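> call design_seq(struct)
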C-alpha cells in the first residue's frame, strides 16, 4: 500500500491477485475510517472504528513491493541504480499529488476542512512532523505519504551499506534495531505527552496530542514498512526458505487473522498505552503474515479473483488522495438537499463519487505520466 505503487509491479500483480485484494481492502478500511469522523450511522461507525489499520496494511505492501524492486538488482549482483529508482518514485508519486495540491491552494472550496499547512511542508514531505490536525486539518491524510517518501529516500542508501558489509546478519540486525527503537520512541512519547492528559487529576481530550506526538511522526510508524522489507528480503535472498514458508499459505492467513483479532481486544481503545507501544508492531506482524499468505500459491487469497479488486487496487492511490475532499463536498451538497449525514443514500453517493474521482485522476494524470516514465527509462 503501497499507497503509491499501484498493486505492485505489473508482472507481480498478474501472478499474485491476492495483493490486489489486500490493496483493495486497505483503501476500503481507510475510506470508512475517514468517513466515520464526520458523522455517520452506528453500523458505519462500528465498521470504520479500526479502519486506521488500512494505512498499516499499505505500509506492509509498500515495504515488500518497493523494497523488492531494490533487492532484485542486488540479487543479480548489480549496484542499486539510484537515478532509476528515484525517477520511478517521482513519476509514481508527484503528478497526481501535485495536481491535488494545486486544487487545494487554488480552490478553497476543495478542502475538506480549514487549515492548510505551509506549502513547503507538502513539497518537502515533512507535514507529518508536528501535525496538529485541529489547526492544519486540510489534506492531513498526506501524512502517510510523508512517511513513505522519507523512508524510501534512505532505504537505497541503507541497502547499499548493508550490501557492502560482509555479514550474514547485518540486515536482520538493522531491522531489529529500528523495530526496538520504534517501541522505545512510542513509549517515551506516550509517557511524556499522553499520560499526563489521560492519567492526570483533571481529564483532558488527548486525541489531538496523541496524533501529533505518537501517530503521525515517522520514527513511530516504521513497523509496517520494516515488516514489508523483511518479507522482501526473505522472498528475494532466501528462495529456499521462502519455498518452505509458502507451503503454509492458509496457516499464515489464519495466524495473521488471529493476531488481528487479538489486537482488537488487547489494544482498544487506540489512545492507550498498550495500543500506542505494542499495537502498531502487532498490526504490522499480522498484516505481514497475511501478505505472505497472499504471496503463497497454496493460499485461498492467491486463488481468489474478486470482481473489481484489481481496478480498485490500481486506482487506490488516487482514491486515497481525493476521497476525503470529495466526501465533504458530496455530504454538504446532499445535506443542502435534505439528506442527513447518517443516511444510507449519502454513504452510497460518497462511495460512488470517491471511486469516480479517484479513477478519473488515475486515467487523466497518473496513467499518462507512468507511460512517460517508461519512455524515459527506456532511453
Amino acid at each position: 500500500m503501497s499507497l503509491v505503487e499501484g498493486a505492485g509491479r505489473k508482472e507481480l500483480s498478474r501472478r499474485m491477485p491476492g495483493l490486489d485484494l489486500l490493496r483493495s481492502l486497505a483503501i476500503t478500511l481507510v475510506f470508512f475510517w475517514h468517513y466515520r469522523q464526520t458523522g455517520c450511522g452506528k453500523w458505519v461507525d462500528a465498521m470504520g472504528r479500526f479502519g486506521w489499520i488500512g494505512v498499516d496494511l499499505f505500509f506492509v505492501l509498500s515495504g515488500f513491493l518497493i523494497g523488492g524492486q531494490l533487492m532484485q538488482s542486488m540479487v543479480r549482483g548489480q549496484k542499486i541504480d539510484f537515478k532509476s529508482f528515484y525517477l520511478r518514485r517521482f513519476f509514481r508519486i508527484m503528478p497526481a499529488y501535485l495536481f491535488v495540491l494545486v486544487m487545494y491552494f487554488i480552490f478553497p472550496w476543495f478542502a475538506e476542512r480549514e487549515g492548510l499547512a505551509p506549502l513547503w511542508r507538502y513539497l518537502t514531505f515533512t507535514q507529518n512532523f508536528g501535525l496538529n490536525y485541529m489547526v492544519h486539518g486540510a489534506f492531513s491524510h498526506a501524512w502517510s505519504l510523508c512517511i513513505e517518501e522519507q523512508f524510501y529516500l534512505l532505504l537505497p542508501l541503507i541497502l547499499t551499506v548493508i550490501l557492502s558489509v560482509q555479514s550474514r546478519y547485518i540486515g536482520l540486525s538493522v531491522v531489529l534495531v529500528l523495530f526496538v527503537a520504534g517501541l522505545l520512541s512510542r513509549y517515551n512519547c506516550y509517557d511524556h505527552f499522553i499520560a499526563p492528559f489521560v492519567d492526570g487529576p483533571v481529564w483532558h481530550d488527548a486525541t489531538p496530542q496523541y496524533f501529533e506526538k505518537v501517530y503521525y511522526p515517522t520514527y513511530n510508524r516504521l513497523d509496517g514498512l520494516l515488516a514489508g522489507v523483511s518479507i522482501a528480503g526473505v522472498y528475494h535472498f532466501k528462495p529456499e526458505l521462502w519455498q518452505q514458508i509458502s507451503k503454509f499459505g492458509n496457516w499464515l492467513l489464519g495466524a495473521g487473522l488471529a493476531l488481528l483479532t487479538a489486537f482488537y481486544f488487547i489494544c482498544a481503545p487506540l489512545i492507550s498505552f498498550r495500543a500506542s507501544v505494542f499495537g502498531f508492531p502487532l498490526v504490522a506482524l499480522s498484516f505481514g503474515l497475511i501478505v505472505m499468505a497472499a504471496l503463497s500459491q497454496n493460499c485461498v487469497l492467491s486463488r481468489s479473483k474478486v470482481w473489481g479488486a484489481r481496478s480498485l487496487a490500481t486506482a487506490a492511490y488516487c482514491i486515497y488522495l481525493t476521497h476525503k475532499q470529495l466526501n465533504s463536498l458530496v455530504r454538504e451538497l446532499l445535506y443542502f438537499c435534505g439528506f442527513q449525514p447518517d443516511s444510507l443514500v449519502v454513504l452510497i453517493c460518497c462511495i460512488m463519487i470517491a471511486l469516480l474521482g479517484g479513477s478519473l485522476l488515475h486515467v487523466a494524470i497518473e496513467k499518462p505520466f507512468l507511460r512517460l516514465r517508461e519512455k524515459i527509462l527506456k532511453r
